[in-house]
Amino acid sequence: MLYSVLIYASEAVAAARSRQDDEALLARHLALQRELAAEGRLGAVVRLMPTTTATTVRGTNQSMVIDGPFIETKEQLLGLYLVECATLEEAIETARRIGQCCRTPDSGALEIRPVSWSRLDVPRGEAP
Q1: What is the CATH number of the domain that holds 36?
Q2: Is 125 inside a domain boundary?
Q3: Which among 104, 119, 30, 85 is positioned nearest to 95, based on CA atoms?
Q4: In what helix (H) or strand (E) does residue 82 lie, and over which residues does it extend?
Q5: Looking at the 3D structure of the chain, how many domains does it have?
Q6: What average pLDDT score do residues 10-15 get?
Q7: Distance between CA 31 and CA 116 in Å, rounded?
Q8: For the chain, where are the alpha helices, taking DSSP H only?
Q9: Residue 107 within a domain
């Protein structure tokens, strides 16, 4: 089953990270991504831009568009992994491996959710 592992942490902590620390963090993630790919379990991996770059659309007809983050929280969604796991227990263990890459000093969290459906075979810029 395909699972998403959502990475929540403080954007302020991430923004304060030195370039050297950020490169080390990315190197740890890349090493894990290579391991998961070798196991045939790696799907998409995403690092999101800060919430200050977000735009929120609400409603379907006269949609309301709001620049920036909609709510203030201590933790923000910073990125996600899609991973193939046979069981929830395997997904939890994979999330722990992802967490070891993050090594965040704050109270960051990893949220695991089974994926209902996905469309990963569509090349960028093309309609399915």
Answers
A1: 3.30.70.1060
A2: no
A3: 85
A4: strand 76-84
A5: 1
A6: 90
A7: 28
A8: 11-16, 19-38, 88-102
A9: yes
